[in-house]
Amino acid sequence: MSTKKEGKHKQSLYPSSAGISRREFLKTALATGVLATGAGCAIRVSTSGAQQVEIKQGTNGFTIAYISDSHLLARGKEHRFAKALIKAVEDVNNLKPQPDFVLYGGDLAQLGLREELSLGKDIIAELKPKLYMMVGEHDWYFDMGEVWKEFFGKPTYSFDHKGVHFIVLNSVVVEDYWSEAKMTPMERMLFMAQLDNPKGRPFTVGEEQRKWLSDDLSAVSKDTPIVIFSHSPLYKYYKAWNFWTDDAEDVQKLLAPFKTVTVIHGHTHQVLTNKVGNIAFHGMLSTAWPWPYAPEGIPKLTMQMDRPDPFNQFDGMGWGIIDTLPNGHVNKTYKLWERNPMFVSHEKVSTGGGFVSGHSY
Amino acid sequence: MKFINIMFACLFMSLAMFIHSAKAEDHAVSATQQAVQPSDDKAVQIVTSCDGRKKIIVEGCREGEAMPEQKARKVAELLMALMEFCELEITAKIPKTGMAVQLSVNGEPYITITDIGELPLVLVHGGKPHTEREKRIWAAEMDRMIQEGYAVFHDSALGTNGISCDMCHPDAANTHPETYPKFQTQIKKAVLLRDMINWCIENPQEGKKLAEDDPRMKALEAYILSARAGEKLEPGKH
């Protein structure tokens, strides 16, 4: 039942999905019932944050893709989490044009085991674009990052790409409480892996890395756009689930003098948007499972994703696209599997208005 | 039933007379009033129900004197409420001032209630209030069941693929036990929470479903319900 008019409307709704073919769109639209239910649904979507994008491919602007939070278990490529990561890798490889690079957002493994990280390494090795890696707590706390570092190198680094300064942090540093408690490595790992652990301790970037960050930034002009990748959100959302970075304010202070700063973080497995001072924050989707929104502390700018259907293995999950604009700001697209993508533009974040909450949890 | 009706008829008649006598400031003693010699200076009146099992000692009122209307109504109300508990021998004391009422059931020591509405709670256990020790035992036993559920909820052993409930439901979020029973569109019938628990075990967790009376199932329900304490019951809500 698609008409030319509806097709045009779709373009204005999801301008950033330039990589999606018309056939792909129709497939998604039919699957989600947008075309079947007609304009009512489409209008609702259009009021909830979709905007025109001024990005022009091939100029200063460029596109990055991300995949995050796959939580692989050492149960081979037939396990549902492995299948989901493979699906994300295939989706990214099918993007046309290809993104400049892919960021992996951390928590490749569930329990930090060599077998899990090795399985993940094999799967993401299939990615065609260049790959940058970030570490999550699930990758780290079995052996304190030994295997992860052996496979992927340093967890903290920076690089420049087309005029943007990128920084990758290890934001899952936790003060040692396990030595005194004489925990085994696996006990420590399981303790960290439990999100709702009332005895858990908050994540930090830590003094050592903040010093590194300060040094790294000292060589960057204040006009240079900065994009930071961190596993935990670099702000305080909900402490009980460690949707939290305890020294967030100290990190934000280091970033305050810069004109254009964006933080892209994993860990929260949900559509999440925030702005603190000059810094815009975007969450990443997980390929393994969606987290519910926390009972409190959801940033006002967040346009909540719909409650996932548990009967659909891939609902509420996916991967995403980060469009870096010529002005250095970022548009973020959440590529939710089996649903329409959700698009959060730089304008919406900077003006802070016009967001409509999705279904509540 | 017949017995109770007769009892009430008897009570109403007595009370009507009693209130009338109080209002009319009539010194005539009704059938339900007995004279009592006040020990020392303390004046009391005693009102007895017609079956003789309920006795209200009204302090501050001399035998033979009319009670103020408010007090008389309170006595009537209390007597009516006590009559609900046919089997019990109850003596109640209404002090001269204040709202508290003291009750002795079947000769046990007096306990204090501040509102007649508390009677059903107090008297259902034969008038013995719960001791702190009892309350601690109950809380501990309930907590043990919830903790067993917490452990099952956070253990991937329920399934076969390493996935545990808490991965998708931290603090039992998004379980909505207060919305069951409801028609689960994906299962195509009305289900209870336990049916969804079993669905999760069989599907995302790829495990074998639990029998409905499995202690692990009961414990899971206990944990999930406790985590949603205070939520309004809304069966059928989607």
Protein described:
The complex is a heterodimer of chains A (361) and B (238). With 361 residues, chain A is α/β, with parallel strands linked by helices. In chain A, 29% of the residues lie in helices and 18% in strands. Chain A folds into two domains: 1-47, no CATH class; 55-351, 4-Layer Sandwich (Purple Acid Phosphatase, chain A, domain 2). In chain A, the strands form three sheets. A six-stranded mixed sheet of chain A has the order 3-2-1-12-13-14. In chain A, strands 4-5-6-9-11-10 form a six-stranded mixed sheet. Chain A is globular. Chain B is α+β, with helices and mostly antiparallel strands. Chain B has two domains: 2-123, no CATH class; 154-227, Orthogonal Bundle (Cytochrome Bc1 Complex, Chain D, domain 2). Chain B has six helices and eight strands, in the order H-E-E-E-H-E-E-E-H-H-E-E-H-H. In chain B, strands 1-2-3-4-5-6 form a six-stranded mixed sheet. Chain B has a two-stranded antiparallel sheet with strand order 7-8. In chain B, a hairpin with a 6-residue loop joins strand 4 and strand 5. In chain B, helix 1 runs antiparallel to helix 2 (69-83) and helix 4 (132-153) crosses helix 6 (215-227). The model of chain B is unreliable at 1-7 and 19-40 (pLDDT under 50). At the A-B interface, loops of A face loops of B.
Attribute tags:
heterodimer; A: 361 residues; alpha/beta; Purple Acid Phosphatase, chain A, domain 2; six-stranded mixed β-sheet; 29% helix; globular; disordered N terminus; B: 238 residues; alpha+beta; Cytochrome Bc1 Complex, Chain D, domain 2; two-stranded antiparallel sheet; 6 helices; 8 strands; 37% helix
